[in-house]
Specification:
single chain; five-stranded antiparallel sheet; 51% helix
Length: 827
Amino acid sequence: MITVPAPDPPHRHLQVRLRTLFRTLWSLYAGDLAGIAFLVVVIGLYLSPAIKDGAGFGPADLGRHLSLLTRLAHAARAPRGIINGDIVTQGTAWNTLDWELVHHGQFPLWNDLSGTGLPQFLNFESAPLALPTLIGYLVPLRFAYLVTVAMKLLIAGTGTYLASRLLGLRPLSATFAGTTAMLSGAFAGWLGWAISGPLAWAGWLLAAGILLYRAEPGDRARWYALLALAVAFSIYGGFPEVYVLMAGAFALLFGFTGLARHLSGNQIDWAGVRRLGIGLAAGLALAMPLWLPGIQTLGSSVRDSEGASVGLSLHALTLLVAQGYDGLPFATKAFPNGTFFGSSNYYETAAYVGVIALVLAGTAIVVWWRRPIVVGLTASAIGALLVTYQIGSGAPIQHLIADLGLGSIAPQRILAMLGFAIALLSGLGLELLLRHWYEPRTKIAFAISVSIMIIILAVLWERSSIGAVALPGGHLTASQATALRQRSLYWPTAEVLGLLVLAALLQLHQHTHQRSGTQNSRRVRSAMGVLLAVQAAFLIVAGVGINSYEPTTYPVTPAVTALKRLVGTSLVGLDSVKQPCAPGETATSCTLFQWDGIGLYPEMNLAYGIAEFAMYDPVIPRAFLNAYPARHTDIYQTGANLFSPIVNSASLARAYGIGYLIVQPPNPIPKGTRLVGTVTASGLALDVVRVLNSHRFSFAKPTAKTRAVTTQSRVHQRSDVVNTTSHPSDARYVIDVRAPHRAQLIIRITDAPGWHATANGHPIPIHRAAGDLMSATVPAGTRVIEITYGPALLQVGEWFAFASLVGLALYGLLETLRHRSPSNQGR
C-alpha cells in the first residue's frame, strides 16, 4: 500500500515565502537595515528623558511661570528651561491648534483665538501640512509634538544617510554622516522651533537631486516625484527665512560641484540639470498654496520689518568644537538663570558637531580635494562660515546681506547647513579611512587633521581661564567660569586622545602583519565602528540635557477652569497693572509690548480654547499695530511680535469686540462693565467683568444722513440688529440679522487679505474699518450674512499644486506605458 503524504497547509507555503523574502532582503540590505536601525536607536536615546519626565516636549515649566493662571501650587522649583520659551508659547501651541482643528474636520486656516484673529496656515511656522505634523495627527494630542520632533530627527538622519550612500559611502560611513547631521547642535538645538522643519529635508533634497540627475530613461518619474515632494515638504515645514539660507547653501554646493566637475574634464549633463529644474519647479508648485498667499501675508506683517542681524562674533566659532564653552542655557539650583554668558542667544550659537567629525572632514578634504563633491561641500561649508561669523571690521558680509534686502534674515541660522556639510564630509572621511587607511597619504592627512585639532584645543585650554562673568540675576566667579569652560573641553580632549590611541593600535596591527603581507580590513572596520559609537555618545550627551519634558505641557489649573467657565467663547481683554518701563523704553511700547502675567501668555491660550486680546505671532499686521489707539501715531518701531495691550475702558473693549476683561487689583472696575466673578490665581484675586453691549458683529450707529432717509417714521432710530452669531469653523461665521434698511456691519476681525462676505447668498464688498478691522455694507432686507476666509491666491496655489500632481502622475503613467511597449520589451 502506497501512502500519499498530505499536502502542506496554505499557511505553510506563506511562511516559507516570507522567510525566503526576508533572507533575500537581509542578504542585499543588511548593512542599510542596520544603519537605519542605528539611527532609530540613537533618536530613541536622545529623546529617552520623555520616558521618565513625560511626553510633553518643551519647557512647560517655563510656560507655566509666565502666567498667574497656570502656575501650579506644588511647582516650587524654578523653570529648568529659561530661554527657549518659544517652543511652548508658539510651536507647541500652534501644533495643538492644528491637531484640534484637524480632529474636528477643519483645515487650520485661521486662528480666531489670538486677538481679533490671525492667519494660521499662512504664518508658515504653524506648519499644518509639514510631514512631521501630519504624522503627529495620527497619535493622541499629548504625544503629537514629541512625535513631530522625532520625525524631524528621522527625516534629517535618513535623508543624509541616503545622500551619503548615493555618494558611494558604505553603510557604516553613511550612518556616521546621518547621526552627525541630525544631532549636530545647530539642528538639534532648534528641534522645537519651526526653523528645523525645512532644514530636516536637506539630505532628502540632495539625495533626490542626485537620483534625478543620474536617472536613466524609464526610471525618472519616481525621482521627479521624490524631488518635488522633498521641496514641497521643506517649504511646508515653515520658517521662510530658512528657505533663502538653504537655497544659498545648495547653490554653493551644486555650483562648485559642477565647476569642479567641468575643470576636471568631465562633462556636465545639461539634460540632468534641466531635470533638476523641472523637479524643483514641480515642488514649488506643490507648495504654492502656502508660499503664494504667504508672501502677501508676510509682506504686510511685522516679520517683514524685523531688525537686521550682524551674525556672530568669531569667538562663537569655538562652540563648533566645544559644547558649553560659554555656558549652558538651563537652570540649576546654584544658577536659576542658567550659566550661558555668550554674546548671543545659546540656540543661535550652538554649532557643535564633535571633534571626530571635524577631524574626519579635514582628512577627506586633504586627500580627496579634487573630487567635485568634496569641493562643493567645502564651498558650502565655507560660505556658511562667512555668512555666520563676523570676519573683518564692521561685519561687512552681514551688512552686504542686509543691503541686498535680506536684513530681516538672521544669517547665523545657516549654521545647520554648515553642520550638514561637515556631516557629509566626515562621512567621506570615514569612508576614506575604511578604504585606504594603510596608504601613507591617508595617514598623513589624518595626522594633519589631528594635529590641527590638538592646536585648537590647546588654545581653548589656554583661554579657559577667565575672570568673573555677569549673568542675569547673578554672576559666575572667576573659578566657576574657568571650571565651566574646562569641563566643556573634557569630551573634545578625550576624543582626540582616543583618535591617537586608535591610530596607534591600527599602526601596531599593521606592523605585526607586515611580514605576512596581509592587511586585516576587519580591524579597520571595527575601529571605525568605535568612532561611530563615540560620536553618537558625544552628540547624545551634548544635547540630551538641553531639552525639557513634562507630563502635561498645558496643565488645566482651577484658575483656568474658572476663567473658561465665566467667559466661554468671548474675547478676553487684560487690564493689568503694568510694571515701570525699562530704561530707554517708551511708555507706549512698554504698555503694549510688555507681558505682565495676569492672563494666559499669548498663543498659549490656544491650548485652552480661550480667546484673548493679545498676540505673539510674526504675522501680526503692521497696519493693526499702527491703527491701535495710542499716544504715538506709529507705535510699531522695533519689530517685536508680542502685542499685549492694557484694555482699561469699556469703549476701547467695544471697539475690538472684547466681551470680558480680567482686572488686576488695585485697578478699578471700568465704567460700562459688570462684575461676573473672581478668579484666584497664585494667591491673587482677579476680577472678571463683562463688557456691556460689546459684540464681534454689530451695526454701526446711524448718522444724521441715514436718519433723514426715514422721515416718515416717528422714531428715527434704526432697527438693524444682529440676532445670533454662529461659528461653524475657524474661518467661517454665520450671522442672523434683521436689516430692514441699508446698513453698515462692523466686523471686528483683523483685516487680512482673503475675507469674503455674502448677504442672503449674494457677495458684498468688505472694507477696512477703524483699528484695521473690517466692515461691510448690508443691503436692505438682509437676513443672513456669511463671512468666510479664503485668500484668492490660496485658491490659485491649489490649482497649481493640483496641476503639478496631475503632471507628475501623467508623466509616471506615460513612462510606465513606454517601458511596457513591445519595442522596449524586445530590447
